[in-house]
Amino acid sequence: MELSPAERQILFMLQENSRVSNARLAEAVGMSESPCFRRVKQMETSGLIKSYVAVIDQRQLGLDITAFVQVTMKDQTSYDEAKFTECVKAEDHVIECHAMSGSYDYLMKVVARNMDHFSEIAMQHILKFPGVKTIESSFNLKEMKNNHSLPCA
After folding, report:
1. Strands, sheet with 106-112, edge to edge from the N-terminal-most edge strand
2. 112-145: per-residue pLDDT in tens?
3. Which residues pair with 109 in a beta bridge?
4. CATH value of 5-46 in 2.40.30.110, 3.30.365.10, 1.10.10.10, 3.30.565.10
5. Is 52 helix (H, G, I), strand (E, B) or coil?
6. Contact 58/66 with Cβ under 8 angstroms?
7. From 3.10.25.10, 3.40.50.300, 3.30.70.920, 3.40.50.1000, which CATH number describes the 58-139 domain?
């Protein structure tokens, strides 16, 4: 999708603060309010802007553990990907899951209250998802960067 410099600036600003007023947004990109509002609505309608979210501090929710779980499936033909996907979507503590190339099939980002809670999620849930053969977990020791903003340049 070809974006104008103003649209790129709008996207950048909305990623930084999705609650910015249309008046402030229009002023920052050098547009009047009505055309700015229309551009934002067009980007929402086209699906470029998928949603607006609040970024929450997971530790303040008591979720002190972040694990990256590499999932290896038994084999690609012996499981129903749709059922596996249903299980992934139903597990609230799996906050991301990506199909991967390479030595494992999926990479999950999992949050938990503590190690005991993570152990329960891993052994009582993830390992019981359809088709899962093995999992290998790595734990975040220190977050170096966590940016949900995409480059708009």
Report:
1. 94-99, 106-112, 65-73, 132-139
2. 999 999 999 999 999 999 999 999 999 999 999 9
3. 68, 96
4. 1.10.10.10
5. coil
6. yes
7. 3.30.70.920
Q: Model pTM greater than 0.90?
A: no
SS3 breakdown of the chain: % helix, strand, coil, rounded to 5?
40, 20, 40
Q: What is the pLDDT of residue 19?
A: 95
Query: Rounded to whole angstroms, how far apart are CA atoms 30 and 53?
Result: 26
Tokens 């290896």 -> residue? 72
Point out which residues pair with 74 in neighbouring strands.
none
The pair of three-digit structure tokens given for residue 33, joined into one six-digit string: 């309010």
- pLDDT tens, residue by residue, 20-74: 999 999 999 999 999 999 999 999 999 999 999 999 999 999 999 999 999 999 9
Burial environment of residue 87 by CB neighbours within 10 A (0 to 12, 13 to 18, 19 or more)? middle
